[in-house]
Design goal:
- Helix 3 packs across helix 4.
- By secondary structure, this protein is an alpha+beta fold.
- The relative contact order is 0.12.
- The radius of gyration is 21 Å and the shape is globular.
- The chain is built from seven helices and 20 strands.
- Strand 6 and strand 7 form a beta hairpin.
- It binds NADP nicotinamide-adenine-dinucleotide phosphate.
- NADP nicotinamide-adenine-dinucleotide phosphate binds next to strand 8, helix 3 and strand 13.
């Protein structure tokens, strides 16, 4: 009986423009809007949505969403639950780090690296909040957040109870977790990470290897790996202060080995990475750039970034419709040229 038992204390605002809450700088009006700093406020906000039979949407950093021009007719709940607790485990070899869902992701990466804790360094500078990290199992440069998550503490809105969901129960996969199956059921309150005091760095990923070879660094430190990731990402991705964007708009392609072979016959220069003996991963940016000619295009006030065709950009004043029109053109062209269906990584909100 958590959700029916709330005191009315929090301010719920009406008719709030969502544009400034997203990194795309796009979005209509939220019928209701509130910011939650703790569990009581979250319960009140969700209780309000249940009582008024309105949908709710949990807003984190707004970095991986595209909000409809028509806005959201329910209540947008901005997750601002903060806090970070460090506990030594396994005779001090590892550290459990419990982090509030509303903490900024990169602030946590920075802080843990400064404390000499290994595990999150390759995931530096990914925009967004900690609460969003398990949902799509964020990953970059050969690391995935699933490898550091012990458990995720959630509110199950359907069963009306708090739950600790263990790593295996999360059913993590490539940019996937069970939270994706039922996006409005679980609200992440905090994430428990297990980080290593004397961990092993992973700098095998091509971009990182090249970076350290170029700088003549043979055995980089934890801090140098974080700095390298920051440098590479800054070079490849647009500055959020300059452009409206949600980063990679589409998921990279995972397809059958047979399809990979077929495409390699047609495009011998294409980059194809084996995932296992049945599947391959193809960088979608390569297809968009070399086959479809989509790198750096500009149509009206939208386009793709000059250094990375996977990244859609709002050059100022674009609407969600402008973005979806361009995205649809890209989907159609990739299918026409390769027979591959591509899917947005960015979540559509309406
Ligand atoms: P990239 O390095 O050009 O790689 C493009 C694609 O090729 C990715 O799917 C990548 O897999 C795959 N790949 C590269 N080397 C591989 C290898 N040795 N074996 C198997 N697959 C390989 O990617 P990018 O666009 O510049 O992005 C850099 C990193 O940031 C990538 O790791 C990308 O996944 C990550 N990223 C993550 C998110 C997110 O979590 N939402 C969003 C944008 C970018 P992986 O994806 O497994 O690396």
């Amino acid at each position: 009986m958590i959700l029916s038992n709330f005191a009315k204390k929090m301010k719920i605002q009406e008719n709030i423009s969502l544009k400034e809450f997203t990194t795309f700088k796009i979005g209509g009006i939220a019928r209701f809007f509130c910011t939650v700093l703790n569990e009581d406020e979250l319960i009140e906000a969700i209780g309000f949505s249940k009582k008024n039979k309105l949908p709710f949407f949990i807003l984190g950093g707004g970095s991986n969403i595209l909000i409809s021009d028509n806005g959201f007719s329910g209540i947008v709940i901005k997750m601002e639950m903060k806090g970070i607790e460090y506990t030594e485990v396994e005779n001090g070899k590892k550290v459990q780090v419990k982090v509030g869902a509303g903490e900024n992701w990169d602030d946590i990466v920075k802080e843990t690296v400064e404390k000499g804790l290994y595990g999150l360094e390759n995931l530096s500078l990914i925009p967004g909040t900690v609460g969003a990290s398990p949902v799509q199992n964020i990953g970059a440069y050969g690391s995935e957040v699933k490898d550091t998550i012990e458990s995720v503490y959630v509110l199950d809105v359907i069963k009306d109870e708090y739950k600790t969901i263990t790593n295996s129960e999360c059913r993590f996969d490539y940019r996937y977790s069970m939270f994706k199956e039922d996006p409005r059921r679980y609200v992440v309150l905090s994430v428990n990470f297990i980080l290593q005091k004397n961990g092993k760095l992973n700098y095998d990923y091509k971009d990182l290897k090249e970076h350290f070879a170029f700088k003549n660094i043979r055995e980089p430190s934890l801090k140098q790996v974080r700095d390298a990731v920051i440098e590479i990402r800054t070079r490849k991705l647009p500055n959020l202060k300059e452009y409206g964007t949600a980063g990679s708009f589409f998921k990279n392609v995972v397809t059958s080995t047979a399809k990979g072979k077929e495409l390699l016959t047609k495009y011998p220069d294409m980059i194809v990475h084996a995932v296992n003996d049945k599947k391959v991963k193809i960088p979608l940016a390569w297809i968009l750039d070399h086959i479809c000619g989509f790198r750096g295009v500009k149509i009206g006030n939208v386009g793709t970034y000059k250094n990375q065709a996977l990244v859609l950009v709002n050059y100022g004043g674009a609407t969600a419709t402008d973005i979806t029109n361009l995205a649809q053109k890209m989907v159609d062209k990739v299918y026409e040229e390769t027979g591959i269906e591509i899917f947005p990584e960015v979540e559509w909100v309406e």
